[in-house]
Design brief:
The chain is of the alpha/beta class and 292 residues long. Helix content is 34%, strand content 22%. Strands 1, 2, 3, 4, 5, 6, 7, 8, 9, 10, 11, 12 and 13 form a 13-stranded mixed beta sheet that branches. The protein is globular and about 60 Å long. It comes from Donghicola eburneus.
């Protein structure tokens, strides 16, 4: 499977057509380059807030209302694009109401026009303390034509038990849409994505926002690039990096994911991290204090 992962700029839009034209260009560009699965970043949908005007877009609570008011239209657009291009599309995540809570939700579209979603599980300090976003649920596995795919949104990729739950349920590749405002944040998510690829013997696909959007407090600063990571084992790149884009440059990054090779390295790799995971458990519960 050829995957395309985005380094995506947050743009101001004066009209719905401006937004729709942008997303359509991005999707068609990836599809024309042979991509079969497209990954947009976390909170990339915040650019929809511009359609409500500067005052509402610049207010944290107001920006949630502005974006959630447009999510249904954005979903219709992505659904149609997935069908037109016969691709899987993970659209940019958005804050949306879920009962009495606001959750961070990434919607996933199939070539047949089906849609499901993954909610972020664990909130960053900004999300929980300033923005009032709550953890959603549950973790899901998406059974695509190529293999089983899971999604860990940004900070979620830094928690190994979440990834382990996905791979225990059959996951072979994990999509990691992210939004990071500094190199340190980007590095944390990148390191998390690489670590999950190593310990789960899978491929992880990281997307980022890039550039400044001073009109939107939630995503005013954005640092990152697209990246596709793998276990540094036989049949894969020895660096653990299948592909990476140029830092802070808007573009797609492409890589081929071989699901058969994932199965092979899990079965007969130089190391067997996935199989040997359980050997940690009795050892971490029996730590002794040395009198040294």
């Amino acid at each position: 499977m050829k995957v395309a992962t985005a380094a995506y700029p947050i743009d101001w839009h004066d009209s719905w057509q401006s937004y729709a034209d942008k997303v359509t260009r991005w999707v068609h560009d990836a599809a024309e380059n042979g991509a079969q699965m497209l990954v947009f970043p976390e909170y990339g949908a915040m650019e929809l807030a511009s359609l409500a005007g500067a005052e509402q877009a610049g207010d944290l609570a107001g920006s949630i209302r502005a974006v959630s008011d447009r999510v249904a239209e954005a979903d219709d657009l992505h659904r149609q694009l997935a069908q037109d291009t016969q691709t899987y599309i993970l659209s940019a995540s958005a804050p949306v109401p879920d009962g009495d809570e606001i959750v961070n939700r990434a919607r996933f579209f199939s070539p047949a026009g089906a849609m499901d979603w993954q909610d972020k599980q664990i909130m960053t300090r900004f999300e929980r303390e300033d923005w009032g976003i709550a953890g959603g649920g549950p973790l899901k596995i998406f059974d695509t034509a190529f293999g089983k795919v899971g999604i860990l949104i940004c900070y979620d990729s830094e928690f190994p038990l979440l990834a382990r739950a996905l791979v225990d349920a059959g996951c072979e590749a994990i999509l990691v849409p992210s939004a990071t405002e500094a190199l340190s944040g980007y590095s944390r998510v990148r390191i998390g994505a690489m670590a999950r690829a190593l310990e789960c013997q899978c491929v992880t696909v990281m997307a980022s926002n890039v550039g400044d959007a001073p009109w939107c407090e939630a995503v005013d600063l954005n640092v990152g690039r697209g990246g596709v990571f793998c276990p540094p084992d036989k049949g894969f790149d020895p660096t653990g990096v299948l592909a990476e884009g140029v830092m802070n440059q808007p573009r797609w990054t492409y890589a081929e994911i071989d699901f058969d090779q994932i199965a092979e390295v899990r079965k007969d790799g130089v190391v067997l991290n996935l199989t040997h995971w359980e050997e940690q458990l009795p050892r971490v519960s029996a730590v002794e204090l040395s009198p040294f």
